[in-house]
UniProtKB/TrEMBL annotation:
The chain crosses the membrane at residues 33-52, 64-83, 103-127, 139-161, 167-186, 218-239, 268-287, 294-312, 332-354. The lineage of its organism: Eukaryota, Metazoa, Chordata, Craniata, Vertebrata. GO terms for biological process: lipid homeostasis; regulation of lipid metabolic process. Keywords: Membrane, Repeat, Transmembrane, Transmembrane helix. Belongs to the TM6SF family. Its main location: membrane. This is Transmembrane 6 superfamily member 2. One of its GO terms (cellular component) is endoplasmic reticulum membrane.
Length: 375
């Protein structure tokens, strides 16, 4: 990927959020929540017009170029929010956090960091790929999983947690954030897959191997089973399971699960209802050949769990989380290792699926078999 497209129009326009945010922060009219919402919508509209006028060729080639450009702008805004809330800068985003006070929570700060760094780089990379007429499907699937996971946790957490009484007009700007990824996800999934160089003989040879002959897959299956139990256990913990093990865990290992902001509870329930079934299906796909859906969904879930674990681990130890809900010092190492492995495993699964896809490919019937079937 060449550097000029990567650091071109989108990077320059999105970094324009810095002076714009500083200027708007000193406009007294924006102290009102409705003013924040209206001005934010106006700025995004003007930004769309600017992108369309400067990049019509790219947008006609792939409309997602405009989506990535707009979201790159909001990523810079989120990074400014995170840096300000952690005290690294002042005088930029007070006007916006007044309209969305839940961004001042530890969870809000860390989703802003993730959006401002990881998502921003993904937007630049995908926009650069569009300008270069290259494929970006894998990057798009990872981004889709990450983005959807952040929305699935953040929006219900805002409504159900202690900030539910402070929902303000700016909150409704998140509606496009729910609708646009649905359209973008369908567009990414409909793109053609990157062709593999696996010959039918290689595919047949790989699919004849049992699980014991594939030690890496065996290790992944064991990991998925253990991660599934861990997912179920933490789901039961936030559902107030009365067993001693759940009581000990929530008070001595992850007291953040009791935080009234509701984000950790929602996160564990999303894990239990969405990630746990995927772990079971992924283990099945590693045992039985021909499950061609796994590489795509492994990328989606890698992005989702990467974002979720970054936010959950960071918020569990952040100073904005009350001391009684932070990870105790004597169990910090156990908490960190378990959660890091929980985040790393899906990425290893996605890497395995992309690098050695032969086991998951479907074999087309041979001409002889087709001839016998016709007769």
């Amino acid at each position: 990927m060449d550097i000029p497209p990567l650091a071109g129009k989108i990077a320059a326009l999105s970094l324009g959020a810095v002076p714009v945010s500083y200027a708007l922060n000193h406009v007294s009219a924006l102290s009102h929540p409705l003013g924040v919402a209206l001005m934010s919508a106006l700025i995004l509209g003007l930004f769309f017009v600017a992108i369309y006028s400067l990049s019509r060729r790219e947008i006609y080639y792939d409309p997602l170029y405009a989506v990535f450009a707009a979201f790159a702008f909001t990523s810079v805004v989120d990074l400014l929010i995170a840096l300000q809330e952690d005290g690294y800068m002042v005088g930029f985003m007070e006007f916006y956090t007044e309209g969305e006070p839940y961004l001042r929570t530890a969870h809000g700060v860390f989703i802003c960091y993730w959006d401002g760094i990881v998502h921003y780089l993904l937007y630049l990379a995908m926009a650069s790929a569009i300008r270069s007429r290259k494929r970006y499907r894998n990057l798009g699937l990872y981004w889709l999983g990450s983005f959807v996971m952040s929305i699935l946790v953040f929006l219900p957490g805002n409504i159900l947690g202690k900030y539910s009484s402070e929902i303000r007009p700016a909150f409704f700007l998140t509606i496009p954030y729910v609708l646009v990824p649905c359209w973008a996800g369908l567009s990414v999934f409909n793109q053609s897959r990157v062709p593999t160089c696996c010959t039918p003989n290689v595919v047949q040879e790989e699919q004849r191997k049992g699980l014991l002959q594939r030690p890496a897959d065996l290790a992944l299956v064991i990991y998925l089973i253990l991660a599934g139990f861990f997912t179920l256990f933490r789901g039961l913990v936030v559902l107030d399971c009365p067993t001693d093990a759940c009581f000990v865990y929530i008070y001595q290992y992850e007291p953040y699960l009791r935080d009234p902001v509701a984000y950790p509870k929602v996160q564990m329930l999303v894990y239990m209802f969405y990630t746990l079934p995927f772990y079971g299906l992924a283990a099945y796909a590693l045992i039985f050949p021909g499950c061609s859906w796994l590489p795509d969904w492994a990328l989606v879930f890698a992005g989702a769990i990467g974002q979720a674990q970054f936010s959950h681990m960071g918020a569990s130890m952040h100073l904005r989380t009350p001391f009684t809900y932070r990870v105790p010092d004597d169990t910090w190492a156990c908490f960190f290792i378990c959660n890091l492995l929980y985040a790393l495993g899906p990425h290893l699964l996605a890497y395995r699926c992309l690098q050695w896809p032969a086991f998951f490919q479907r074999l087309s019937p041979s001409p002889l078999a087709l001839h016998k079937k016709q007769n």
